[in-house]
Amino acid sequence: MADPRFDAVVVGSGPNGLAAAIVFAGAGKSVNVLEAESIVGGGARSDALTLPGFIHDICSSVLPLAHASPFFRTLSLGDYGLTYEHPAIPLAHPLDDGSAAVLDRSVDVTATGLGGDGAAYRRLMQPIVRHADMLTRQFLGPPRPSVHFVTLARFGIPALRSAAALAAGRFRTAHARALFSGLGAHSMLSLRRPATASFGLVLAAAGHAYGWPFARGGSQRVADALAAMLRSRGGTIATDRRVDSMSQVLDARVVLFDLTPRQVLPIASGQWPDGFSRQLQRFRYGPGVFKVDWALDGPIPWRADACRGAGTVHVGGAFDEVVAAEDAVAAGQVAERPFVILAQPTVADPTRAPAGKHVGWAYCHVPNGSTVDMRERIEAQVERFAPGFTSRILARHVMTPADIERHNANNVGGDINGGIADLRQLFIRPTARLYATPNRRLYLCSASTPPGGGVHGMCGYFAARKALQRARWS
Ligand SMILES: Cc1cc2nc3c(=O)[nH]c(=O)nc-3n(C[C@H](O)[C@H](O)[C@H](O)COP(=O)(O)OP(=O)(O)OC[C@H]3O[C@@H](n4cnc5c(N)ncnc54)[C@H](O)[C@@H]3O)c2cc1C
Fold first, then answer.
1. pLDDT at position 299
2. pLDDT band at 426 (very low <50, low <70, confident <90, very high)
3. How much is the pLDDT for 146?
4. Atom 50 of ligand 1: nearest residue by CA position
């Protein structure tokens, strides 16, 4: 082969692709990123989806994992325009009686709000929060299941349990049970599945230790800051460059794919033994999401005061209802009363809408590739806890799972996590080789590798380190 032009080419400019490129550039290697779309960022993009002056996050909006990311924390992204804005309250979960369970930044305030379950909540969360930095490094670190669960067991943390069993076993009040079910539902699995408790524990701990912030001006600022930092280290980015064949990446010693297995296969399956392609074909995708963004004439008129200052609101009612909604999705059905994850970025970042106006961002889980229109059901759930909400809608933008995949090919069937994260695929992701392939030139660096979905860049960081170690550089 002629001397390649770049030490590395990264295919895809999501948070993981950009993180991988930054690691390469930091190691003094030449690196180029090829992005299919005209704007960088993948799942960290924002746009005026509804009306002029209203900035909406097209995919990710709530950024506890970005803020906690051990790699991003080393990058001084503030120097490249990224500022996190914290809402007064990270998360609220309203109930039908007009009250709400609240995840506050403080464990004590949260526990006090949970009344009879305050002591149980403190016992559960305090050890995790006390060791949050160490646990974050482990959870956003390379996958070592034995170390993960042994460490957690040392703190008496029942992460291997199902979220439903943990909520029902540890808590007696409707508030604590509802709060924990909503956190566990971020797993996108039935809450009766093992290890779904770990999602709830990690997200609650992140809320206490780091907050659940937004990026000022939109999540696009995370991608823009990463891109600017990459360029400052000499890296380059080419947009409108969809890669569909190895012939487009011949100019690189090493190629890192910020893509999921289904996209990598048609590009690279000739580059390794068929057995490895078969392993990639067996990788499983999870449910999709149906998303609605709103331009609003004013704040959402929640009945529960706490919801008004919360960045994120879990809209799904009581524990049993949340469990049933997620069970329906796991069984391949849509829920009549879906569990809705709603963010109101303008409570923390007023720059995203004209004075006095607001934006709302919400989605619910649906079976992968579902074509059912969930818009009315999502809005009915919000109206249930915020009477008068629909009359504040100035404009809306709806994305079906197919639209979400059209926006970014990594969101296969609307799956926002790059593949289901059940107990097996939490650690063996997408194969037991993780970031590596049988070809020392080719690596995987997307959310389809550990530690999985979310804006944190850690998949890209570990993949790049693996490639730097393993590739032939001379
Ligand atoms: C609706 C939605 C809501 C979400 N909410 C949150 C949230 O609130 N908080 C959070 O932390 N995470 C959230 N996520 C998840 C988060 O966005 C992803 O896990 C994260 O972006 C994954 O990063 P990545 O770099 O692995 O891939 P992606 O961000 O998906 O980037 C992949 C990139 O590759 C490009 N690409 C694809 N195919 C090709 C090709 N053939 N050639 C060249 N380029 C290609 C894509 O255009 C894209 O830019 C959400 C995702 C979605 C879709």
1. 98
2. confident
3. 60
4. 60
CA of 27 to the centre of ligand 1 (A): 25
Ligand 1 atom nearest residue 18's Cα: 25
Mean confidence (pLDDT) of the chain = 95
- Of 123, 99, 90, the closest CA to residue 175 belongs to 99
CA distances to 56, 302, 383, 396 from 447, in Å: 22, 34, 34, 29
Q: Strand 252-257 and strand 442-444: pairing?
A: parallel
Which pTM was predicted? 0.96
The tokens for 87 are 């809402």
CA–centroid distance, 405 to ligand 1, in Å, is 10
Residue 453 in contact with ligand 1 by CB distance below 6 A: yes
**Chain segment 164-207, per-residue pLDDT in tens:** 999 999 999 999 999 999 999 999 999 999 989 989 998 999 99
DSSP state, residue 386: S
Whether cis (ω within 30° of 0) applies to the bond prior to 127 is no
CATH of the domain spanning 6-44+216-283+418-470, picked from 3.40.50.11440, 3.10.20.740, 3.40.50.300, 3.50.50.60: 3.50.50.60
Q: How far is the CA of 415 from the centre of ligand 1 (A)?
A: 10
Radius of gyration of the chain, Cα coordinates, nearest whole angstrom: 21
Q: Is the CB of 243 under 6 A from ligand 1?
A: yes
The one-character DSSP state at 102 is E
Give the pLDDT confidence score for residue 120 in this predicted structure: 97
Domain boundaries, the chain: 6-44+216-283+418-470
How far apart, in whole angstroms, are the C-alpha atoms of residue 395 and residue 53? Answer: 12
Q: Is 447 in the pocket of ligand 1 (CB under 6 A)?
A: yes
The CA–CA distances, whole Å, from 274 to 93, 218, 269, 437, 474 equal 48, 42, 7, 12, 28
- For the stretch 29-49, pLDDT in tens is 999 999 999 999 999 999 999
